Amino acid sequence: MCLAVPMEIMSIEDNVAHVEVGGVKNQVRLDIIDEPPQVGDFVIVHAGFALRRIDREEGLETLKLFQEGLGLELIK
Amino acid sequence: MNLLNKFKDPELCLNILDQIKSEIQGEFRFMEVCGTHTVAIFQSGIRTLLPESIIHVSGPGCPVCVTHDREIASYLALAEKDLILATFGDLIKVPGPGGKNLKAAQAEGARIKIVYSAFDALKLALDHPQDKVVFLGVGFETTAPTVAATIKMAAEQGVRNFSVLSFHKLVPPALKALAADRDIQVDGLLLPGHVSTIIGLEPYRFLAEEYQVPSVIGGFEPLDILQAILIMIKQKNKGRPEVVNNYKRVVPDQGNAKAIETMYEVFRPADALWRGLGIIPGSGLAVAQRYEQFDAALVFDQELPQVDEIPGCKCGEVLKGLISPDQCPLFSTRCTPANPVGPCMVSTEGSCAAYHKYRL
Ligand code: SF4
Description:
The complex is a heterodimer. Chain A has one helix and five strands. By secondary structure, chain A is an alpha+beta fold. Chain B is α/β, with parallel strands linked by helices. Chain B has 16 helices and eleven strands. Chain B has helices at residues 3-8, 10-23, 35-43, 46-49, 69-79, 102-107, 118-127, 144-156, 171-180, 193-199, 205-209, 222-238, 257-266, 296-299, 315-319, 351-358; strands at residues 28-32, 54-58, 84-87, 111-114, 133-137, 162-166, 188-191, 215-217, 243-245, 267-274, 278-287. In chain B, helix 2 packs parallel to helix 12 (222-238), helix 3 runs parallel beside helix 16 (351-358) and helix 8 (144-156) crosses helix 13 (257-266). The longest helix of chain B has 17 residues, at 222-238. The radius of gyration of chain B is 21 Å and the shape is globular. The two termini of chain B are 31 Å apart. The interface between A and B is large, with 25 and 48 residues. Iron/sulfur cluster binds at residues 313-315, 318, 325, 328, 330-331, 335, 341-342, 344-345, 352 of chain B.
């Protein structure tokens, strides 16, 4: 249950970011992130909340790990 | 070479492995605290590559696994009341007293909804104004701030039919209890990546300073894990234990101040009951007085029932690293992921489930 997945921010409205990973769209709350992210950034998402902004390249790379580790089709 | 491949590069990994082999003196026992590390260590094959003198034990790093029988009994009792219980999916199969779990309670008519976040539970409350919705709060410092933020939102919006049964647990006090226990001998601790994203480096300092245990915050790639092991071994050899952040690309040394602040606005430290470790002072989070109308323990007058432990299950010893899962007599016989006897076999991050899946 501690899985924290990096997702890309597509848009931001108030305190909610619309994020996407491998075509799966989701909404995450930005209430507890201390470094406000921007569209195009990656955030580490855990239980519906963004925990931390991460470097875009790192985000993409970490995604590949999830894809391999869990056999998910996250990125093409 | 792209960044991720760098962290998997076999040549780099072999290089570190050689260094580990040349540095190791005698036996070295390391414990990983986080369930995601447990899975990564198996999945990457690191266990088979390491020299035999390196003994790897899993610790209490899976929130589902450390949930105590009495806590499970408490939420099963809650499920029998006239309310909607919202929970993360992981808890639904965890057996409580007599082997009963939430799934069985659901079959008997209890209203149980699986949610992906505490916020979804709050939405459930808003969508069902006639019903009381209780969210089962389990998890460490990674999860607790998300639940705290949700309670704050509920307060701001004046929601009256939402509450949280808080069984959240804090990692550093549990590590303190482990470090202080003379039966548990570990030469190094691989500290959890995502909990550290929130709490940073500081709360672990006592491990090196008071208990002389080399400790490294590490990532989940093969190279991250091997590097962490090498750092711990070197520290032990030098006799200079430290706490090192070797996962800087994701974990800031200072953690996430906003998340911590939110967490301690809504919760206050409380004693908590851990499976295997017993009561650890200050290792849990109770809802603070200011938000007490959202405290399900108060709203529903919910106490921890006295219950018998699950017969035969050795989860407690597994979580303390005293035995490995395959030393439990029920392992892979009476206890399997399809028919788990204890929580360590339920969660995919549980030690018993990882051993069962990747058994060498
Ligand atoms: S194998 Fe099953 S019964 Fe044994 S310790 Fe693990 S979860 Fe408990």
